[in-house]
Structure to design on (474 residues):
């Protein structure tokens, strides 16, 4: 009886197998070499481990060597991904924005940031960026250099002078965040700035990672902090709107006022929720990478007295050209060529971001391999900056790399490239040079822990906060 019951089942299985054999086979895509790692988590743990270990380039470098390929597949942060390595990969991704690829961030970023420039693509992103660029172009920044200088002098006078020791990272984080609040939103109330800064400290821990919305996780805490920041910003936006109506505030005084009062090129005003999200994004982007870079400048130059001596000489010459009490201006920054080259080399040695992400809008071929539509893509600044094929003596600090025409195109990408290049590049340049000028003119410093480790979380930070010894410079 059981045999008779099994006959129809076996016949059905044989028929299905026969049909499968007759069915024409579709060609499997020629995917890049690599491994998707463990189910769900993929190779995320090793990716994050390399960052926490202070060598994010190791994840990329190991696989380039293992697969002997300038592109490899992996699975990161829950996504199938192709990593395009080196200048050729950077060029492909930057030059194909909006055509074959589009900006992408891990879902944690999208969920925390909401609808704003970083989550938009195409014409929507272009319109938002055009509005924001009105406050990040050189012409607008020319009017801000004096404000940045005055703000920086006040910070050093109140937080540095008279101290023989301080923790550089936390002190600079406070300064760059306060400066961003001042320039982007005209906020000077220390209580408001302090509340926002406390929330941001929690918010940053879960921005890039697995979006596990469960109590106790970094993402859960980050989401709560983001909601608290939005609550603060909503009050500020409503108050600014009232000030603009009463004409006690100017539409051109800061980015917040500009976004509230002005429409895009089609005359469409930005919704309040998007204004708040964009301010959240700007505060995030406008202070954290600057903090990391300033800390790294202090660390590297304390170890390189011959470089520091040349920086001091350049900055003293500029200081000598100023009248007593006269603030720095845009033209003074153009004279800081050697100092800027030193800062550029700091960012080559330890990139302010490890890289960024894109997504494939269509199937495309790269280096003979098929990258399927929907796959995510990653480019690595760290691995490019430390590749001896493009930067000889890669472990040696050499500011002269940036003299003349500087490094070859796409070999140096601390601010990204293409349409998605960091819109705050010139702002960062002004902020870093102004602080650098005032620091070397006013202080000697030395590291308390010369061998202190730098990790990525997600920006480079010193594990002990980089405590330094201080004394005034004659």
């Amino acid at each position: 009886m059981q045999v008779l019951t099994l006959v129809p089942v076996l016949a059905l299985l044989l028929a299905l197998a026969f049909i499968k054999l007759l069915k024409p086979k579709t060609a499997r895509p020629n995917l890049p070499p690599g491994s998707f790692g463990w189910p769900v988590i993929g190779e995320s743990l090793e990716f994050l481990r390399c960052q926490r270990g202070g060598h994010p380039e190791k994840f990329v470098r190991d696989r380039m060597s293992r697969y002997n390929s300038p592109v490899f597949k992996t699975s990161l942060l829950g996504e199938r991904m192709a990593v395009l390595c080196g200048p050729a990969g950077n060029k492909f991704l930057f030059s194909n924005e909006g055509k074959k690829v589009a900006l992408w961030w891990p879902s944690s970023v999208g969920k925390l940031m909401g609808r704003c420039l970083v989550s938009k693509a195409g014409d929507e992103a272009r319109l938002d960026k055009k509005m924001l660029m009105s406050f990040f172009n050189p012409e607008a920044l020319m009017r801000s250099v004096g404000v940045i200088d005055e703000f920086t002098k006040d910070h050093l006078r109140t937080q540095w002078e008279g101290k023989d020791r301080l923790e550089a990272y936390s002190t600079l984080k406070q300064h760059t965040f306060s400066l961003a609040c001042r320039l982007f939103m005209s906020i000077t109330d220390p209580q408001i700035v302090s509340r926002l800064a406390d929330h941001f400290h929690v918010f940053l821990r879960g921005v890039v990672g697995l979006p596990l919305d469960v109590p106790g996780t970094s993402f859960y805490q980050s989401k709560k902090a983001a909601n608290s920041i939005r609550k603060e910003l909503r009050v500020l936006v409503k108050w600014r709107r009232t000030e603009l109506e009463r004409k006690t505030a100017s539409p051109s005084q800061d980015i917040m006022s500009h976004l509230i009062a002005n429409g895009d090129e089609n005359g469409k005003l930005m919704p309040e929720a998007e204004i708040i999200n964009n301010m959240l994004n700007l505060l995030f982007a406008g202070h954290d990478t600057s903090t990391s870079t300033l800390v790294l400048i202090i660390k590297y130059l304390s170890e390189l007295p011959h470089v520091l001596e040349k920086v001091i000489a350049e900055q003293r010459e500029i200081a000598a050209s100023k009248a007593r009490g006269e603030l720095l201006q845009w033209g003074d920054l153009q004279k800081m060529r050697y100092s800027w080259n030193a800062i550029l080399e700091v960012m080559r040695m330890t990139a302010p971001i490890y890289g960024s992400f894109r997504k494939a809008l269509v199937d495309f071929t790269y280096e003979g391999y098929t990258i399927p539509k929907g796959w995510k893509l990653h480019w690595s600044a760290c691995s490019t900056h430390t590749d001896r094929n493009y930067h000889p003596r890669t472990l040696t600090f050499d500011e002269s790399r940036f003299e003349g025409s500087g490094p070859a195109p796409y070999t140096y990408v601390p601010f990204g490239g293409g349409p998605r290049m960091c819109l705050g590049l010139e702002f960062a340049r002004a902020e870093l040079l102004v602080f650098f000028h005032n620091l070397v003119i006013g202080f000697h410093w030395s590291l308390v822990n010369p061998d202190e480790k730098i990790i990525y979380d997600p920006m480079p930070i010193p594990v002990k906060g980089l405590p330094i010894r201080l004394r005034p410079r004659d």
Notes: Residues 245 and 261 are 9 Å apart (CA to CA). The first helix runs from residue 2 to 22. DSSP finds 18 helices and twelve strands in the chain. The mean pLDDT is 88.
